Amino acid sequence: MPRSRDARVAVLGGSVQRSAAAPYPSRGRAVLRRRVIVAVLVVVSIALITISFRSPTSGPLHDVQGVGSSVLHPFQVAADRVAQPFRDVYGYFSGLAGAKKENKKLKKELTQIRAQYAATVGAARENAHLTRLLHYERGPTFPVGYRVVNTRVLASPIDPFHQQVVIAAGSNQGVRLNAPVVTADGLVGEVSNVLPSSAQVTLLTDPGSAVAAFDATTAVTGLLQHGAGSTLSLQRINKDQVVDKGDVIVTAGTLVRRLPDLFPRNIPIGSVSSATNSDVATYKTIQVTPYVNFSSLDAVAVLVR
User: What is the distance between the alpha carbons of residues 34 and 246, in angstroms, rounded to a whole number?
Assistant: First the structure.
């Protein structure tokens, strides 16, 4: 059966009613809704906190809190694991800064302790030397007719060719030119220059120094001068005279009061380390090791007639 053309036209031409689009919520209404939600959440939170503090230790609310804690525990663990490296880094740098500050403080304290220790050791050493000088002054070997001026050494020799030291006593303390200087071990040298509060002492190790000395065992007399290295040399001893290794060498001084020597008699100087004869030399070659350690002089005594 043929379709009706008129029916088709009627259907296509008919008007169809469409529903109107729903209007969008306004911006002001959305803002108001968010504020209301926030306010409700704040009120609920305050209410829950109040109920939690006022409620007993057990009850529905606490049960709900326990369930919530159990549910949120995995998230808390995950958050702790994520935050742990950052906490470790912060702790490392914080500890490093603290360690540097503490290290600086400890270094400063160590420097102060070292300075105090050095001062204490130096004072103890000087006190020990002065005590020995006091014993020497009161001992039987102290020369008769002399008094002593105990003092400390201010400056050591500047080089091997100028063997002088400076002491902290001068003419104000009674120190005189050419006065002998000793320690408890033996002879040091003589005063070569005097100032009011200090003096210069020329040591036995100076190339220009010379002292009349003799062997306390054999009574052989010679002239003691600077020798090789840190030794002294007893010169002008004839080859037929007896001087043995280990003999004690002391100052010769003089036995005549009208002709006093610069050095009183029997001040210890050192011991013979070697005594040999040579075919080409006129005298014996005698080396003497001094009793005094000239490289570590701290305190000395000036003998004043």
Answer: 111
Could you list the pLDDT tens digit for every one of the 305 residues in the chain?
455 555 454 444 555 455 555 455 567 777 788 888 888 887 877 776 776 666 655 556 566 666 666 666 676 777 777 777 877 777 777 777 788 888 888 888 888 887 777 767 666 766 776 677 777 777 777 788 889 999 999 988 877 777 899 999 999 999 999 999 999 899 999 999 999 999 999 999 998 899 999 999 999 999 999 887 778 999 999 999 999 999 999 999 876 566 667 888 899 999 999 999 988 888 999 999 999 999 888 889 999 98
What is the C-alpha to C-alpha distance for residues 201 and 267, in angstroms, rounded to an integer? 17
| Tokens (6 digits) for 151 | 């003092």
Tokens representing residue 58 in the block: 């057990």
Q: Structure tokens of 274?
A: 């070697």
Domain 144-305 annotated CATH 2.60.120.200: no
The DSSP string of 172-216 is GGT--TT-EEE-SSSEEEEEEEE-SS-EEEEETTSTT-EEEEEET
Residue spans per domain, the chain? 77-139, 144-305
Beta bridge partners of 289: 271
